Amino acid sequence: MSQAEKEKENDRDKQMTHIAGTFLIDANGSFLNGAGLGSGDYENYTIVKTFEDGRSEKGQGTYRTPFISAASWRRWLRDTLIEETGWPASLKRALDRNEKGNTGKIGTERNPVEYVEDDLFGYMYPISKKTKQIMKLKKEQLAQSQAQTQSQTQEAVIAIEETPEVEEKADTDEVEAEESATISDTTRGLFRTSPLSTSILVGLRKFGWEGKDQNYVHLVDGNAVPYKTQFMNTALQGVFCLHYSRIGVFTNIGDKLELDDDMINKYKQSEAIEEITENRPEFYGLERDEDTEAIAEAVDKDKKKKGKPKKYYQLLKKHGRVFRLKDLQQIRDERTAALLKALSHLRGGAKQAAFGTDVSPKVLIMARLTNGNPIFNTIFEDSPLHESSTRGKNVVLNIKALQEIIRDYADRIIPPVIIGIRTGYLQNESDINKLHDTVVNEVKIQVDTPIRAAEIMTDLLPSNENKLTPKQQ
Questions:
Q1: pTM for the complete prediction?
Q2: Is residue 419 part of a domain?
Q3: Judgement on whether residues 165 and 203 belong to the same structural domain of the protein
Q4: Structural domain contains residue 85
Q5: Distance between CA 349 and CA 79 in Å, rounded?
Q6: Domain hosting residue 427, numbered range
């Protein structure tokens, strides 16, 4: 067996569970995520989001480092995903309102079978005490309604039979109420943690990143009105880790459900999903002992205690339920490929009309892993050397740190490590290009463009790997 065949055989022994990566955005002259109006010296300025990051060089105060919230750029990614694919969007809507009529809860469709966003980005819909009380009240009203229906006289039944329109409406209302009660009883709360974990986008430059823009709105009548904007000049670094093996798989354990009973029945009937019966997840749950109430009452009586008897529970081992999409491998790889493509073509951000920033990655580094560590972090630096006046050329990839990461995680990396860089962006670009086809602890490195990096990773997904030509492999 040749060395190439051995390497291919070893790769097959490793089961990919995650895709980890990092990327850089060129945010020079940008305003992508605002923090509202400032105060003090920044009164009347619309400012960018910042956080404190260490002491300044002269020990006077702290650095203010600009950043983009994870929620913000994840929204860019979701929107880009839908725009690139044309898939149906899982729209946000009000799910509950408080006593004043204001929105209390928001949520998406909460349907990961039909909506890819819900599968990749997750959702949360807890059932509050108030909602449970409403559910209980509806159930009691339904029971009373059914009791009244059963006690109707024969004359009333005849009257209803002679007016089919009324009967049909009554039946429809009863069915709707019954369905509502059924859903309420079975839905204890829908939760799906996102398979895609992401960091905030952190500015590499700690000082000298700030810009100020002051403009005026000129009126036909009256004085011009000023408005001021703070903006940033820095590269932004992000880290992500996609839990690949969770895509298209949905788990119900205890009170944490990813699919409700209605969805399960609907999609099992249409054969869109199938239940996994082997190796079901185990958990412990509390169950009321049937006889403990009587025991507790006797104990309370003996001890001459007042009040209701105590409720005793026992800890029992239970099993959760797991469901997966039909044709899981193909659909999982389609969704993963679409997400990687959206990341490489990323677009979005605030004040695009005024600052027009291209937020597609200028550097994108990725690898397949057998574990969930987001290993490619803090490997970029804002170099103090300003030998070039080219925008962005002060940014450096720490090659030594990258190679160290590859050596440490070589047994958990499924080669290759893919580096995508935009020409003319990194200060040590020539040294990075020399890494192409080099090997660190049997892990091969490939260097290409950011968009090609996403395409190469897509080609390496299990459903596409067998289609590769020997040259591509």
A1: 0.80
A2: yes
A3: no
A4: no
A5: 11
A6: 3-78+196-246+328-465
